Amino acid sequence: MAGSVISGRIAQGSGRMVADTVIRNVRLFDLVTGELLPTDIAICGDTIVGTLEQYEGTNVIEGHGRIAVPGFIDTHLHIESSLITPFEFDRCVLPHGVTTAICDPHEMANVLGRPALDYFTQAAMRTVMDLRVNLSSCVPATHLETSGATLAAADLVAYRDHPKVIGLAEFMNIPGVLNGDPVCMEKLEAFAGGHIDGHAPLLRGRRLNGYLSAGITTDHEATTAEEALEKVRKGMMVLIRQGSVCKDLRALVPLLNPATSPFFAFCTDDRNPLEIAHEGHLDYLIRLAISLGVEPLAAYRSASLSAANAFGLRDRGMIAPGRRADIVLLDDLRECRVSDVISAGRLVNDALFAAREIIPPVGTDSISLPGPVTAKDMQVAGSGAQRPVIGLLPGQIITPFLHADLPVAGGIVQPDPAQDIARICVVARHGHNDNIGRGFVKGFGLSGGALASSVGHDSHNICVVGMNDADMALAVNHLEKTGGGFVVVRDGQVVADMPLPVAGLMSDAPFETVRDQLEVLRAAARALGCQLDEPFLQLAFLPLPVIPHLKITDFGMVDVNRMMLV
After folding, report:
1. Using CA atoms, how far apart are residues 96 and 46, in angstroms rounded to an integer?
2. In sequence order, what are the residues at sequence separation of 6 or more whose Cβ sits closer than 8 angstroms to the Cβ of residue 12?
3. CA gap 50, 63 in Å, rounded
4. Cα→Cα distances 519→155, 353, 410, 516, Å
5. What is the pLDDT of residue 226?
6. Which residues are in the Adenine deaminase C-terminal domain (predicted)?
7. Do 530 and 446 form a contact (C-beta atoms < 8 A)?
8. Cα–Cα distance for residue pair 219/228, rounded to 1 Å
9. Which of 230, 466, 496, 566 fits as disulfide partner to 524, beta carbons 3.0 to 4.6 Å?
10. 537 to each of 81, 285, 297, 350, how far by Cα in Å?
11. What gap in Å lies between CA 253 and CA 246, rounded to an integer?
């Protein structure tokens, strides 16, 4: 059978047989020289078999002189952070030219464990795009939070040879790697020689050397050009990230040019349907990079060929004979204006999506609180002098470790609108305990009310921020009723919400519905005084104790630099 497939490719590519499909009259963007080359593209099944020649085809797609570039590869993302299922993600981003996405189901795995890996690997077999999975390496992410599940090395090895699995996902436990933690070593050894993703914010010098010596090859956490340059010089592939919260592209693109493009790729990490609707997906990253002075050759090479090479996907990344027929047709190269997408030789349209087998979601009963939360549960007693305060930086997940003098009333430390300091709590939601972490955060701009989310990286306990204790308690209790999601509360009333019943992380609704709900939530947050572009995603990263400097979990405030509770 394999021989007959290969024989057919040879016959069609050499012109002895009519090609299955021909994309006629395009200008191929050459990733070697940057030239635009007039040509037809011949396709046999899911494979390109001819370029730089004229071909006849059983099925003809008229190019009309459009520009053909290889399909884009998102090298690191969490589909759960798009707030939609893998099938809606497929339908949402494939029309933007993303023909391959490498996901880490880390968020769902921290809630459900192996059932999350089962769900994502099964879904990946059914999507129109080529969805690949990196296995979540840090479940739980740290010992300073309550996760819903644990994945040991043996759990991950069980999926290692799955056809959709690439390797081991972002290894966030830097102290564990550098100090030879036995659990970390077992996972690293199990995947030695394969692909291992990195996660190394601000890591430099000898500590970076030690980390790389574990066989880790990529990083998406570089936030300055100096940091990124050291990492690529030491052999790392830096994944330039531009998501809904973390926006690092402007800082890193000065390094990106045709000479360096083999060492850089693009990723979104966390990007929601509202941002995709307003700006785009990887097409937006390419467009933005070019607008900032990056040569198109470097931008498109990083979005395809460099990404494919970094992850061992040798069958794609170029429009060339023998490569997978993932092709994007553009009306404009510099604007990256996508008009048609071909995925594995198939023209992407509604019929392709309708023909998929959709598997049911899992984790629809994942919120388990020991009882209703009260206003008193939100409160912090004691002195208000020099309280630790999380600093919020819009567009970043790095949070400064601040201190502030806060007012006290009746022995309870109060939030202070004058200093833009709100109360923040993390409520354990996996049914393992009744922990509540309490603290303060600066930068939400709230004049009253509360915002709450069951998306709280990485363990996804319920995170709530507010100026009113009763509103905060109501917000938490409301999320238990909806099975998770986002909610805005003011003066004892729920003014906007979005249920996320799939593991408390994803909607079971179409992406268009999620997009519209996010608009309503954003407006409701603005009515409370919050001017952040992505208030709920910004909130979701505050319980992430692997990103410097001060975070909060259900255990309490965490000094990330020392990995100790404050």
Report:
1. 20
2. 18, 19, 20, 42, 44, 49, 50
3. 15
4. 39, 26, 39, 5
5. 98
6. 396-562
7. yes
8. 9
9. 496
10. 8, 19, 33, 30
11. 15
Q: Which residues pair with 506 in a beta bridge?
A: 502
Q: Which residue has the tokens 């059914």?
A: 126
> Cα 545 to the chain's mean position, in Å?
17
Strands 550-553 and 556-559: antiparallel
Asked whether 487 and 516 are in contact (CB, 8 A), the reply is no
CA atoms lying within 13 Å on the CB side of residue 6: 3
Where do we find the tokens 């912090």? 380
How open is the CA angle 98-103-107, to the nearest 5 degrees? 135
83: left (phi over 0), alpha (psi -120 to 50) or beta: left
Structure token pair of residue 186: 């077992």
| Residue found by looking up tokens 């003066």 in the block | 491
- Report the 10 Å Cβ neighbour count for 175: 13
Q: Which residues of 37-53 are buried (b: 16+ CB within 10 A; e: fewer)?
A: eebbbbbbebbbbbbee
Burial of 282 (0-12, 13-18, 19+ CB in 10 A): buried
Whole-number Å distance between alpha carbons of 557 and 503: 25
d(CA 239, CA 268) in angstroms, rounded, equals: 9
Give the Cα separation of 26 and 4 in Å (integer).
29
User: Given this model, what pLDDT does residue 141 score?
Assistant: 85
The tokens of 129 are what? 């795009």
Please state, as a whole number, how many other Cβ atoms lie within 10 Å of the Cβ of residue 292.
13
> Which regions in the chain score pLDDT beneath 70?
1-3
For the full predicted model, state whether its pTM sits above 0.90: yes
Instruction: Give the contacts of 386 (CB within 8 A, at least 6 positions apart).
Output: 403, 404, 405
Q: Residue 89 half-sphere exposure, CB side, CA atoms within 13 Å?
A: 31
Give the CA distances from residue 12 to residues 8, 19, 56, 63, in Å, rounded to whole numbers and listed in that order.
Answer: 6, 5, 9, 20
Cα–Cα distance list, 365 to 53, 152, 282, 479 (Å): 56, 24, 33, 12
User: What is the torsion angle, in degrees rounded to the nearest 10, for the CA atoms of residue 499, residue 501, residue 506 and residue 510?
Assistant: -70
Residue that has been written with the tokens 């060492």 in this structure: 263
- The two tokens of residue 115 are 């059932």
Name which of 553, 549, 523, 287 is nearest 396 in CA terms: 549
